[in-house]
Amino acid sequence: MEVVIAPAQELAVLAADAIEALLRRRADAVLGLATGSSPLKVYDELARRHDAEGLSFARARGFMLDEYVGLAADHPERYRNVIATEIADRVDWPADQVTGPDGLADDLPGACAAYEEAIAAAGGVDLQLLGIGTDGHIGFNEPGSSLASRTRIKTLTEQTRVDNARFFDDDVDQVPRHCLTQGLGTIMEARHLVLLATGKHKAEAVHQLVEGPVSALWPATVMQWHPHATVLVDEAAASRLQLAGYYRQTYASKPGWQGL
Ligand SMILES: N[C@@H]1[C@@H](O)[C@H](O)[C@@H](COP(=O)(O)O)O[C@@H]1O
């Protein structure tokens, strides 16, 4: 696992560099998309590169991590709409090439199985962007999630609903109680995981993710088993890391050609 500690804007540039390198190598690359505030600067940087430098998503495929159950099709916080607004509609990404689990399906388990099949049919995810919840969730895999889980329905914790109330007029009652999420086993099959975390409220989750024992109590710790995981954090989110000095030293002496 590689840990990079830098200001938020620099982290966004690093993540965008990795995505750009992938798209320039393979125009039909498969990107794993995350919602929440953590990846927003990355999406801004990608949209800027699209406008200013011709970075194209015309042949790329996109798979989202998760979705709320039951939000109306036109609800602005439905994750499909969030991804359209934050990235897909800002670049040349055909709408039918970006998809997520269907939180409005009549048959939710069927929709989850179909989503797993769609990811597999696309050849799997090349690069998965991730944020992390204050309780250590990735996607919406809340504490207690099986480390081998696949896409399925989950119940959100009270903590997550309170954290996400800011997107729902600060009214926790408007935050759905259920979601569909790629499982930890699904996420772990992506070939490169790139997690972004900023702010002091993420410091404990980041410490557990990087340095804690692998445990369903802190679901993101499963990433310690991934052969290519990158953790991009600002100073505040890094403030509880025991080996911060070592991570800084390692990154400072990394050969420039290596990329993330
Ligand atoms: N389902 C999303 C996650 O994919 C996201 O990574 C996390 C952190 O959100 P934020 O980046 O806004 O802190 O919580 C949300 O609930």
TrEMBL record:
What residues sit in the active site?
Answer: D66 (proton acceptor), D135 (for ring-opening step), H137 (proton acceptor), E142 (for ring-opening step)
Q: Which PROSITE patterns match?
A: GLC_GALNAC_ISOMERASE (PS01161)
- Which intervals hold domain Glucosamine/galactosamine-6-phosphate isomerase? 8-224
List membrane-spanning regions.
Answer: none
Annotated control of activity: Allosterically activated by N-acetylglucosamine 6-phosphate (GlcNAc6P).
- Report the Pfam families cross-referenced here: Glucosamine_iso
The alphabetized UniProt keywords are: Allosteric enzyme, Carbohydrate metabolism, Hydrolase
Q: Which SUPFAM superfamilies match?
A: NagB/RpiA/CoA transferase-like
> Which reactions does this protein catalyse?
alpha-D-glucosamine 6-phosphate + H2O = beta-D-fructose 6-phosphate + NH4(+)
EC number(s): the record gives 3.5.99.6
Residue numbers marked as site, Part of the allosteric site: S145, R152, K154, T155
User: Which EC class does it fall in?
Assistant: hydrolase
Pathway info: Amino-sugar metabolism; N-acetylneuraminate degradation; D-fructose 6-phosphate from N-acetylneuraminate: step 5/5
Q: Which InterPro entries match?
A: Glc/Gal-6P_isomerase, Glucosamine6P_isomerase, Glucosamine6P_isomerase_CS, NagB/RpiA_transferase-like
Task: Give the matching PANTHER family.
Answer: GLUCOSAMINE-6-PHOSPHATE ISOMERASE
What family is reported? Answer: Belongs to the glucosamine/galactosamine-6-phosphate isomerase family. NagB subfamily.
- Its job: Catalyzes the reversible isomerization-deamination of glucosamine 6-phosphate (GlcN6P) to form fructose 6-phosphate (Fru6P) and ammonium ion.
- What is the protein's given name? Glucosamine-6-phosphate deaminase
Organism annotation: Isoptericola halotolerans
Lineage of the species this protein comes from: Bacteria, Bacillati, Actinomycetota, Actinomycetes, Micrococcales
